[in-house]
Amino acid sequence: MKTSFKSDIEIAQASTMKPIVEIAKKIGLTEDDLELFGKYKAKLSNEVLAKIKTKESGKIILVTSINPTPAGEGKSTVTVGLADAFTRIGKKAMIAMREPSLGPTMGIKGGATGGGYSQVLPMEDINLHFTGDLHAITTANNALAALMDNHLQQGNELNIDQRRIVWKRAVDLNDRALRKVIIGLGGPLQGVPREDGFDITVASEIMAVLCLAADLKDLKLRLSRMVVAYNDKKEPVTVGDLGVEGALTLLLKDAVKPNLVQTIEHTPALIHGGPFANIAHGCNSVIATTAAAKLADYVITEGGFGADLGAEKFLHIKARSAGIKPEAVVVVATIRALKMHGGVPKTELAKENIASLTLGFANLQKHIETIKSFGLPVVVAINKFITDTELEVQTLLEWCRRENVAVALTEVWEKGGAGGIKLAEELLAVIEKEENKFHPLYDLSDSIEQKVRTIVQKVYGGKDVEFSSKAKKQLLDFEKFGWSNLAVCMAKSQYSLSDDPTKLGRPTDFTVTVREFKPSIGAGFIVALTGEVMTMPGLPKKPAALKMDVDENGNAVGLF
Amino acid sequence: MKTSFKSDIEIAQASTMKPIVEIAKKIGLTEDDLELFGKYKAKLSNEVLAKIKTKESGKIILVTSINPTPAGEGKSTVTVGLADAFTRIGKKAMIAMREPSLGPTMGIKGGATGGGYSQVLPMEDINLHFTGDLHAITTANNALAALMDNHLQQGNELNIDQRRIVWKRAVDLNDRALRKVIIGLGGPLQGVPREDGFDITVASEIMAVLCLAADLKDLKLRLSRMVVAYNDKKEPVTVGDLGVEGALTLLLKDAVKPNLVQTIEHTPALIHGGPFANIAHGCNSVIATTAAAKLADYVITEGGFGADLGAEKFLHIKARSAGIKPEAVVVVATIRALKMHGGVPKTELAKENIASLTLGFANLQKHIETIKSFGLPVVVAINKFITDTELEVQTLLEWCRRENVAVALTEVWEKGGAGGIKLAEELLAVIEKEENKFHPLYDLSDSIEQKVRTIVQKVYGGKDVEFSSKAKKQLLDFEKFGWSNLAVCMAKSQYSLSDDPTKLGRPTDFTVTVREFKPSIGAGFIVALTGEVMTMPGLPKKPAALKMDVDENGNAVGLF
Predict the structure, then answer these.
(1) Could you tell me the pTM of the whole model?
(2) Could you say which of A136, A186, A559 has the minimum Cβ distance to residue B179?
(3) CB contact under 8 A, B546 and A243
(4) Assembly ipTM
(5) B35, B257 in Cβ contact below 8 A?
(6) What are the E-state strand segments in B32-91?
(7) Residues with pLDDT less than 50, chain B
(8) Average pLDDT over residues A273-300
(9) A272 near A259, Cβ under 8 Å?
(10) Above pLDDT 70, what percent of chain A?
């Protein structure tokens, strides 16, 4: 084991990338199929996306995890390392991952691009402006807001009730002072005064819409359905009513094309779209995942947070919408995180603690049961940390064997793809051996209440759901507006299976309270809000920005 | 003469671009010198910018105009057509122009990329997100705002007076409802409540800073000097005090590289930076202009609005800061606009009117005198419109001869470079024949009042300047802060030589009132505000966005 470790950016900057044109060759694409962004990034052209539509699809593997803890799970790292492992054993593999938001990068950390020797490159670019997708989404989001406020100002033909405007503005930054604002001040020439607020861009419905759209045409249709406000009769007013879906689609015409990059080991990766995993579905774009499946035999993709949120939403929302059938699911766990689920505080994690570790298995167990209930083969990936003891690892391995679930120790952070070969082999074995009976746990024709109840009982292991009187009243409206057959997108704490973030492990007998619904009609789901949901993060006392710089050659310094 | 005309976008989309790599070859650059953005756009790499620094500079020609009127002057069109004309007569020519803002595109019009057969391509991309420069500036602008509000929230170590914060947020949109806002509402966890406002991105001081920076190092230095607020002792608080100049430079490290595109006739063009021409200096970046001069023998560049604003600022601010010595200045005029200056209303412009035309010459005359007073050779370009009569054109040509000023009729809108050959030849002649005694009209060591007075008297032809009591008080502070030796940047109506937009032609005997100063310490100038200055435009009743769309192949529709 190494005694000193390089930082992620040191490893990334010491790696040699191949020209993206060469990476594209591996998946049968020529330079003409690409829209280059420098030498190491490219978008897939509309022509190539159309051309590959008729090809047969490869196998899609979903990577998810136990409930996240401050100890870290490394789901993105395992996703990257696993794809490299498939490449090493001679399979044509690709990654389909989310692209990071700039806001958190300026705040606490970046590194939504894997870690150690399992990273996608160029990590500085991907974590900064990348190919401009998020900027295009911010612009489209705010153009819509400006056009709506202009509609108010110019006579309000649609009779929008300015107290019932639900479309917020967005910035791709952590800016708490913009959470609640009043706009339109300064007199009659400066707009109509009203309450407003800003979300971080990844929380914009446009991000969810872009990630669920099948193509440009579907994108426009979804955009036109987005609800921006209610009129004086309390009926929804949509983008289509404002007549600006064409302009928004124009602003997004390039953002909708997936971005091709590479891992440290030169495995091709599509990094595209990154919606929040609470008020949205937390998965990269359908266009990227389906394109990757046309271009490779194995596609490794992931969902946000733990399996109760990310996998549930991948399987119920993204897979259903895109007609995707995953072959198998990887549940990532770490010894450290399982010990936290077993009651160990963060400061004590370096010490061996078999009893707490064993207690923590309950969290993993629930997620395994959930994946199996979807009819899908599952493999547990133990993402190794340097502080893990031999006995701890053996205890987890044995528990998995007793539970009759496939398991593999992975060392992808330290060893790249070589550290993920066991996991890749386990996956090939379960895909070969186990029957795949993938099916959703609820039908779209179920009532909204029933859909929420199914998720709470079958995915979270809860007893029941309570709906606030506001939520109940909203459901009556939704029935009237014809929204009852949409999917449900749960906004719940990622830290617990329940809606109480302090309940680690495997809580039972709990009731989840839905205080409010938020319709995302363009995305095609109704968000069920449980507890407080943060759609605009703040900056810490000492933001990461204070250490950032550029060296004399124009390279990023202090990014992570 | 043609009887039917294609729209700008029809002409643009019917044109065949060459790969940008081929365009780069014309100016001695290889693919390795470029950072490609698709096949037809590229940024110049830091390496090539460093490499060409020691080369000898070509000749820089500035294109300016009479005071703009609603009749249109076509300065950008002449700039593009003139460069094409130079190419046609065998000269190695390049364009250095501003990049457009997205906001006005969604509102009334785009087309900051020339017109007719004198356009830069791909015009749709350039008028939408282009290479993301404006998005990077918006992000840097708003990151700074978020970091400052976070500083307030986290204890306010610098004792910033929240009533004296001068740094505003920005969006690259026309959004009047954001002109005056209150932020930080919602209680102690949501930031410190205060008045705020949004400017359009091109009005951000960061745009001016990026356009005046000599290189990445100078950019960082300028960013660190920007004043964001005043503390409880009324002393300036800068970006450097907040310690975030490194992070802002990181966010701008790619935006600072100039963008290479081409004209319809394949002349190379650097389109980079686009600051407002009222509260900023209205010229494309110094980096682009100086790089173009290293790569070509003739560089055609322009300044915003008429010669009283654009040329004055080019010559006093940009040229001084960058050490640029222009060879000659083109003053663009149209028969239509001169008739408006002579008193003809817009509806009557199609009718021949020699008397009013002759009256309008006075405006052109003043600008010619001004350029000559800078010691520079001048050529008048008559930008032909279809409604101009032969007699009108002859009358203007004769007047120019009587005034002893070089003149050329240009038909670049209709004929591309072929319509600009006369103008190119006139320019070559005056550069050859006339002595260039370029000198600024004021010295930086003059007092701020004196600098303003010099501009008003020598450039506008005014009698005197009045300073409000607020402005006088500010000057005392500036003296204390050591800002008195900065340049002056006038914020004045573009429509008149005076500060009264209704006074067309050549007003005399007027006094200009400076109501307030706005220090732009990073840019290196003090803005003198006369009258109302719009830093956030609004949308019209029927915004252009309503007609925009994307066709089934992903191409822009209805952009202009």
Answers:
(1) 0.96
(2) A186
(3) yes
(4) 0.96
(5) yes
(6) 34-36, 42-44, 59-65
(7) 1-3
(8) 96
(9) yes
(10) 98
